[in-house]
Amino acid sequence: MSRYDEIRALLAAQPQRFLVTGVAGFIGSHLLETLLLLDQNVVGLDNFATGSRDNLTDVTSRVGATRAARFQFLEGDVRDPLACRWATEGVNVVFHEAALGSVPRSMQDPLATHSANVDGFVNVLLAAGSAGVRRVVYASSSSVYGDDSSDPKVEDTLGQTLSPYAASKRVDEIYAATFARSHSIDSVGLRYFNVFGPRQDPSGAYAAVIPRWIGQLLAGEPCVVFGDGSTSRDFCFVENVVQANLLAACVPDAQVTPQVFNVACGEKTSLLELFASIRQHVSAYLPTAAGRTPRLEASRPGDILHSRASIDRARGFLGYLPAFDVARGLEETVRWYAERAVRRATRVGTADAFESSRVF
User: Which of 27, 29, 136, 182 could form a disulfide with 94 if both were Cys (CB 3.0 to 4.6 A apart)?
Assistant: First the structure.
């Protein structure tokens, strides 16, 4: 039995009360779904800046009415100290996912990124400390490695940060370590590497590459690669991230706090390789996608060239063993978006809608 299996069995036998900030977002909603399926009590906090009410509806429909009754939703902002105090009351563990993501967004509006990602995080830490929360597990980012050229990235070696988003996440890590010493607040940081999966927003200026390309291929729209396509990332399916969060929340060893851990697959995939794989999976639902090619454009400021994680520390301390590699994760993800596209096309009542309309 894996450590993750043990943790799930323990939670099912001894339910706790969890807070998920950013609960209506992509990762937050997956955490919510898993916790409810384990019969946990969950408080969710979100201001819908980037999250979606549809995500919450999808989760509650999947878990059923009895389990959904264990979920209490609070509409509020982590930048509001009072909202954080209300949300943490009586909570055992906080999963802090609320943030303004996206490097390009942070380049355009650094103040908004700082306010949500740094001020909001400090509010959550202070509220958790006042409420006697046992542990805060928070989302950091692989962007903190900046211009470090190491391959793979290891937690103790950082370069110069290249964007306000990266800086905000690094500051969060510093605050977490500081509050562990000054306020005895127990926290664990997880550096996410390019997470993808169902319910990730495929539209908008700051959409992540995988859902954006899936949506564009299904809709017959052009796909853009920034750079020459050799840029590589360590793409990580969202279920692996859920596993890492639950492990970080429940592993009793005090040595895991206030450490940070890479959460990834330890694999490197170039953008052109990624596009070819997505195209292959989409063509199973839409054969005309098989002949599509991406358009190359200039690289974006703040983007790093290559990123691959060492997951040795997470494996050793947390017992983290990613269950989904990139190929399996893409298969699950494309299926979800394709089936969603078919359902929407059916609702509009035209046979051409699947191929000719943007269905996201």
Answer: 136
